[in-house]
């Protein structure tokens, strides 16, 4: 792999107009990645999801360079209709369209300059890989006191042209003081056997609000690592909702740094799997200031031979008095061959805090199925109703009503 | 309508029903009374198709073998069980459940399914008849309902689904006298020449409000005595002792 990486790295560098400084930065990151390689189960954070093994057993000859000079046409039907929105479209992970036509132009700054990427001080080898090979980058700044009129949808569309590739993508979004953004990430994959390393970094200033809804519902055989870093200023709020269903493998890693007093982070997630899919949600919530709040609710429905993992960490710094931290995970195991792993971690160094966690797993209640069937519902209908019921309270946590209904629709959830 | 011949049922090698015979004709109301552990709930479970029992004997419903039908097929044919302990189903809206249920049954009979507006009209009227606060219908099914509300909800479902044979499994237990009256009125309103009832109860109290045509005493998995409604009075006075 090292050989291939070096060859592909040179190809990547050649195709981009980069400053010497940036090339140096990339080379440093490349060496860091080469040293450790893809993470495996010997690393504590990866013990339930051995990425190295998953990539090796699913992708025969992984390469790291992709020719972005080709452009692809996308049918309009791929976009969500009857739902007004701004859009950023990635096709095969190359930027194809940026459209903020519902917004005031001077309130949104968009930069695509690869030389502007900086070190994000993460000790994560996949961040190093992303830094080294990044070929498509967008930085968006929402100006002070501006709330977008319509949500922003980021489409990640891939087609069959993409095969056995590693794709690195990064978006940085800054919400200036008292601004707000509703963001929906939608994956739409017709490709298979690729590894996507997709990073989004958010800087949320004082009083700003981010709502980020991440939807991966279309069946596909790609391996994906999503990394979100969220920095929160005073009295700011970040709501993240994850719907994890379509891909062969996903690890959603979400870092929240509650840097400002009275800031809060909400993470709600659904993992709904069949076949031999394997999805993980991993969170690191860092309470770093007083009166900060975090809330996490994760529900998992597992069919066939699928595997769901939730690792939730709450860290409370000595200064972060009056912290309010909560996490709960629940799993429905619908076949004997499914597996659910939950690892709650609480690391608390302040003495005046409220933190709680819980985790349950089980199967559908046969008596409830009997009750529903005795009212004329088929076994299948009864199961679906109970599963929908199990998931509904996570969806109900979505605070934006329009987006909630939109997501219920995508998920096929009926009230 | 319903004919039970030599019905035996066991669970985990424990014999519960030991050769039960019963015939219910269209329009009749039968009451089965028995002490704890006599097999009352097993009888209602077996008739509605609950899994887990070893069963022998013959049960026909409208001349067709009932025992090889699935739970939902029995509901489609017009059998309704009002549960002794209605289950709480989190995340399932009561109204949507009722509509799904009614339309599943209508569909199985080749009847036209109700749309949302038609259904709402129907359910509102039925709720009003049962003095059932319709706000409850927008809540999750039975979740946080009081004991009385749960039982009323069973009767509401019964009146919406309009079954041919309704089995009421200890519907009176846990009901205060006002709720019992309302529930009984609900049942009486559904009495007609075509629909039959099997009221399973421990106490005679409910039979003051729903007058049965026949009363059967179930002891140790068998019907040991049958008679008219006067038998219920006798049981109330003398208890089950003398039948043991």
What is this structure's SSE topology?
The complex is a heterodimer of chains A (415) and B (244).
Chain A: H1 2-15, H2 20-36, H3 51-58, E1 86-91, E2 94-99, E3 108-111, H4 125-133, E4 136-142, E5 152-158, E6 166-175, E7 180-189, E8 192-204, E9 209-216, E10 221-232, E11 237-244, E12 249-258, E13 264-273, E14 278-287, E15 293-302, E16 307-316, E17 324-333, E18 339-348, E19 354-362, H5 366-373, H6 379-395, H7 401-411
Parallel strand pairs in A: 1-5, 4-6, 5-7, 6-8, 7-9, 8-10, 9-11, 10-12, 11-13, 12-14, 13-15, 14-16, 15-17, 16-18, 17-19
Antiparallel strand pairs in A: 1-2, 3-4
Helix pairs in contact in A: 2-4, 5-6
Chain B: E1 2-11, E2 14-24, E3 29-33, H1 40-48, E4 54-61, E5 64-65, H2 71-77, E6 79-82, H3 94-108, H4 116-129, H5 147-161, E7 165-169, H6 177-190, E8 196-201, E9 214-219, E10 222-227, H7 230-238
Parallel strand pairs in B: 3-8, 3-9, 6-7, 7-8
Antiparallel strand pairs in B: 1-2, 1-4, 4-5, 9-10
Helix pairs in contact in B: 2-3, 5-6
Notable features of this structure?
heterodimer, A: 415 residues, alpha/beta, 2 domains, 10-stranded mixed β-sheet, 9-stranded mixed β-sheet, 7 helices, 19 strands, globular, B: 244 residues, Rossmann fold, 4-stranded antiparallel β-sheet, 10 strands, 34% helix
